[in-house]
User: Fold this.
Amino acid sequence: MKVSLIQQTYFGDRDKNIAKLTENIRKCAAEGADLVVLSELHNSLYFCQTENVDNFDLAEPIDGYSARYFGSLARELSVVILISIFERRTNGLYHNTAIVLEKDGSVAGIYRKMHIPDDPAFYEKFYFTPGDLGFEPIKTSVGNLGVLICWDQWYPEAARIMALNGAGILIYPTAIGWDIEDTDEEQTRQLEAWIAVQRGHAVANNLPVISCNRTGYELSEDGHNGIKFWGHSFVFGAQGEVIAQADETECNIVVDVDMARTERLRRIWPFFRDRRIDAFAEITKRWGK
Assistant:
């Protein structure tokens, strides 16, 4: 499968963001992409830096403008597109939601972000209700996509359950970056930890992993420090090998991923055969002994 990731900066204007994404999606399609992955909450600046009720106006339903627009583009270009929206489910109920659009423009499936952070400048619990769809891969013409979102990256349980349910690849639309007051050493540690944990998901599950992050500096609405999104989007192979990795600059990544390697690897690294499921009950507890 030829996969593509779009790592870009964003504006405080939805139409400008969509126009820029459209241009990049067309470029990826022209290079033969089968699947195009966009970063988390790509229609706007990262609004979760503050708690502001007016930001709920950014939300839209699953069958809203984004699904219609990008669905039409998927149909025109005959590519699968993974988009990320601020979902308005009903009055007062909102989710951070990924939508996978098939090559015919239809909605192949959705995933609602399960792990919701609440940290300085990442006040997502104010906006998003945790997902209620579990960890179910989305079946598409290019394979079973194990779609997760950003903060889900830190949880090996989420990746494992996606794998157990038949995912052929793990995909993380992402919005993560640095507090600009952190030291260079702390910034390096955070970035390396982010890469390492996801590389581990690839190795432990014998699956390729895609992470598509935004990049660029975005000032907070209240004028505080803002976030420097660190980019570094990547594609890892099913043994954790680096197939492609960006730096902080805007770019499109278009690479081939060998989806057949999972079967070959699981014959020589039979992690799933040797799992001690009879001894794993404690994983469902909040804390151990």
User: Anything to note?
Assistant: The mean pLDDT is 97. The first strand starts at residue 2 and ends at 7. The first helix runs from residue 14 to 30. The two ends are 45 Å apart (CA to CA).
